[in-house]
Design a protein that fits this description.
The complex is a heterodimer of chains A (219) and B (390). With 219 residues, chain A is an alpha/beta fold. Chain A is 40% helix and 18% strand. Chain B is globular. Classes of the chains: A alpha/beta (219), B alpha/beta (390). Chain B: Keywords: Monooxygenase, Oxidoreductase.
C-alpha cells in the first residue's frame, strides 16, 4: 500500500535553505519507506505560495479559499507530516504558525510528524524543543524523537546527513505502522483510532435527544 | 416567499467621510429603514441584538414595538435573539407582549452570540453556549405552551407554579427560526422541533451553507415534520446595486475595504466569488439570488443586509428602494415559478398557525417525541428479537 506524507515548508526565498532541508528530509523518508518494501507519495506545501490566502482566512474569521480547503483535507488524511520552518526572532516564522492555525485542531491527531528548522546560527537549535514540539503536542500529533535543526554551517557537515537519516527512519517506521490498531474491542475505540477532521465538513450530528438530556426541566 | 432586510445595528464610521452617527441617530435611521421596507413592499424587518459597542441594538422588543406602531403589514423579527444570555422567561414575556401590540406580526430567530465577554456580563459562560441554547429554548417553548410551568434546569433558578404573561396572542406562540453558521447542533435543534433554520450565508462559502441546510432538511424529515424539501429555510444575502457593475463597485469598494468583518482582507472580487456578496446591477443581483435555490433548495425567506460598514442612510435608502421595486418583484415571480407545488412558499405565520387550530403539532412542546420514542422502541424490539435468535 502506498502511503502519503505532506511536507510543509515555510521558506520565503527561492531557492531557500528551508526548502533544501525539506527536500532532503522527503528524499530520506522515501528511501526509508521504500527500503521496507512500501511506496510513498510526497506532497509539498510551499507556504509562501498561499501566504495571501492564509492572511485572508485570518481576517475573514476563517472562510477557507478553495485551495486551503483542499490542503486542509490533504493534511488531515495524510499518513505523516514533515514540518520545516526558518527560525525568526527565536521561534517558528509567523507564516508557519498561520498555516497550523488554519487547520482544524483535530486534523493532526495521532499523525506522525518530523519537525525541522533552519537558522543562521546554531544558537537557535533548541527552537525545535521549545517551539515546535509544544505546538504539535497541543495538536496531539506524534513527533518523532529526532528533530532536525540545520544552521547554515551544518550544510557543510556530515552530521546533518546522519540526523536526517535517523529522523527519516523514525518517521518511516511510524508512517508504516499507521492503520494497525490491533483487534477491535480490546481497547476503548477513542484511544485505538485517532479521529481526524479537516474542519471542512459540518460536524457529525448529535441526536437531539442526547443534547436535550438533563435540560428538559423535569429531570 | 418572504423578503426583507436584517440589520446588525453597528455604528461604523463612514470610511469616505469619517463621519460617525450618534447612537440616537443610528436608532432613528434603523427605524426609518424599517418603515421604508414596508413602503417599498418588503415583508420582514429583522433587528440584531448586541450588548456591546459599536452596536446600539440592545433592546429589540422596545424598538420593534415602536416600529409596529407605525407599520401595518411588516413582519417584525430578530437576527438574532440571544437565547444563551437572555432569560427565557423574559423572552417569553417580551415577545408575547409584542405579538399583542403588533397583531401577531412577530417571529424570532434564535442565536447564541459569539462575543465571549458578553456571557459573563449576563452571568453565563460561552463554553456552555450549546447547552444554554438547548435548555433555554426548551423552557421558552414550555412557557409559551403550558399555562403553568414547573421547571428545574441547570442554568436558571427553578420555577414553581409560574405563568408567563401575557400568554401568546390567540394562544399561538410566534414562529421560531434557529440561526447558526457552523454548529450542526443548532441545525439539529431546528429540525427536532420543526422550527425554521436560517443560515447567515453572507460570511461563508456556499459549499458550507449547502451542507448546513442539507443537514437541517434531512433531520427535519427524520423527525417527521414533512419531507426534507418542505422544511423552512431562510438565507441571508448581501448586495450593492447601481446602474452598472463598474459604478456599483466604485461606490461600494471603500465600504467593503474598510468593513469591520472582512475589511483589509480579501479583495471585493475574491469575496464576491467566495460568498454570496453581489455588487453590480439589479439584474445581476436577481440572477445570483435565484441561484441560491440551486444549492439550498426552494426556500421561504430571504433577508438582505444593507445598512452596515458605515454606508450612509441616503445610499442605503436608495438600495432599499431598488430592492423593493426592481429586484424583489422579479424574485417573487421567479422563485414561485421554480417551486414544486408541495413546497410551502411562506414559513408559518400567525394567521396560518391560528388557522391550523389548537391541535396542530406546532402546539406541542416536543412534536417529534412520540416518533422518536416509537423508533427507540422498535430498535429495542429488534435487538431483543436478534438476541432471542442468537
Amino acid at each position: 500500500m502506498t502511503r502519503r506524507i505532506v511536507v510543509v515548508t515555510a521558506g520565503l526565498t527561492v531557492p531557500s535553505s528551508t526548502r533544501l532541508l525539506a527536500d532532503q528530509l522527503a528524499e530520506a523518508t522515501t528511501a526509508q519507506v521504500t527500503a521496507r518494501g512500501e511506496g510513498l507519495d510526497v506532497q509539498f506545501v510551499e507556504l509562501r505560495e498561499i501566504a495571501g490566502e492564509l492572511a485572508q482566512f485570518m481576517v475573514t474569521g476563517g472562510v477557507p479559499t478553495p485551495r486551503l480547503t483542499e490542503l486542509r483535507e490533504q493534511v488531515a488524511s495524510a499518513d505523516g507530516l514533515v514540518a520545516v520552518t526558518p527560525v525568526f526572532n527565536g521561534s517558528y516564522s509567523g507564516l508557519f504558525k498561520m498555516f497550523f492555525d488554519a487547520l482544524d485542531k483535530d486534523s493532526l491527531t495521532g499523525t506522525p510528524v518530523l519537525v525541522a528548522a533552519t537558522a543562521g546560527s546554531a544558537r537557535h537549535s533548541l527552537v525545535l524543543d521549545h517551539a515546535l514540539r509544544p505546538l504539535f503536542a497541543y495538536l496531539r500529533a506524534i513527533v518523532v524523537p529526532t528533530g532536525v535543526f540545520a544552521a547554515t554551517e551544518d550544510f557543510g557537515s556530515l552530521g546533518l546527513a546522519d540526523r536526517i537519516t535517523r529522523a527519516a527512519a523514525e518517521l518511516a517506521a511510524l508512517v508504516l505502522s499507521q492503520g494497525g490498531y490491533g483487534v477491535g474491542g480490546f481497547a476503548p475505540d477513542l484511544a485505538a483510532r485517532p479521529r481526524r477532521t479537516s474542519g471542512n465538513d459540518v460536524a457529525e450530528v448529535t441526536p437531539f435527544g442526547d443534547l436535550l438530556r438533563g435540560h428538559t426541566g423535569n429531570d | 416567499m418572504q423578503f426583507g432586510i436584517f440589520s446588525v445595528g453597528d455604528i461604523t464610521p463612514d470610511p469616505t467621510t469619517g463621519s460617525v452617527l450618534s447612537e440616537g441617530e443610528r436608532i432613528a435611521y434603523m427605524t426609518r429603514l424599517a418603515l421604508k421596507a414596508e413602503e417599498v413592499g418588503l415583508d420582514v424587518f429583522a433587528t440584531g441584538e448586541h450588548h456591546n459597542p459599536p452596536f446600539v441594538v440592545s433592546s429589540p422588543t422596545t424598538h420593534l414595538g415602536f416600529i409596529a406602531a407605525q407599520t401595518e403589514k411588516l413582519l417584525l423579527s430578530t437576527s438574532t435573539t440571544l437565547i444563551t444570555t437572555n432569560d427565557p422567561v423574559k423572552i417569553a414575556e417580551d415577545y408575547a407582549f409584542l405579538q399583542h401590540l403588533s397583531g401577531g406580526r412577530v417571529d424570532l430567530m434564535m442565536g447564541r452570540g459569539n462575543t465571549g465577554p458578553v456571557y459573563p456580563w449576563f452571568g453565563k459562560d460561552i463554553r456552555d453556549g450549546i447547552k444554554l441554547a438547548v435548555e433555554n429554548y426548551h423552557l421558552l417553548r414550555k412557557l409559551w405552551r403550558e399555562p403553568v410551568v414547573n421547571w428545574q434546569g441547570q442554568f436558571r433558578t427553578p420555577l414553581q407554579g409560574y405563568t408567563s404573561t401575557p400568554a401568546p396572542l390567540d394562544g399561538t406562540p410566534p414562529f421560531v427560526w434557529h440561526g447558526s453558521i457552523r454548529s450542526s447542533e443548532i441545525a439539529e435543534q431546528a429540525a427536532y422541533y420543526g422550527d425554521g433554520f436560517f443560515h447567515n450565508h453572507i460570511f461563508w462559502n456556499k459549499e458550507h451553507t449547502e451542507q448546513m441546510v442539507r443537514l437541517y432538511r434531512q433531520r427535519f424529515e427524520f423527525y417527521g415534520h414533512g419531507a426534507a424539501d418542505q422544511a423552512y429555510v431562510g438565507l441571508g444575502g448581501q448586495v450593492f446595486m447601481a446602474s452598472s457593475e463598474a459604478e456599483a463597485k466604485r461606490v461600494f469598494r471603500p465600504y467593503f475595504d474598510n468593513a469591520p468583518v472582512y475589511g483589509h482582507g480579501p479583495s471585493l472580487e475574491d469575496f464576491s466569488q467566495m460568498t454570496p456578496l453581489t455588487v453590480g446591477t439589479t439584474e445581476q443581483v436577481i440572477e445570483r439570488t435565484l441561484g441560491f435555490a440551486d444549492y439550498v433548495g426552494d426556500y421561504q425567506r430571504q433577508l438582505f443586509l444593507l445598512d452596515h460598514a458605515g454606508l450612509p442612510e441616503s445610499l442605503v435608502m436608495e438600495q432599499l428602494e431598488m430592492l423593493g421595486t426592481e429586484v424583489v418583484p422579479v424574485l417573487r415571480t421567479e422563485f414561485e415559478r421554480r417551486r414544486p407545488a408541495h413546497v410551502p412558499s411562506d414559513p408559518p405565520t400567525h394567521a396560518s398557525m391560528v388557522a391550523a387550530g389548537p391541535d396542530a403539532a406546532f402546539h406541542l412542546i416536543e412534536p417529534a417525541r412520540e416518533r422518536v420514542e416509537a423508533m427507540q422502541a422498535e430498535a429495542q424490539a429488534q435487538q431483543q428479537a436478534a438476541g432471542a435468535t442468537a
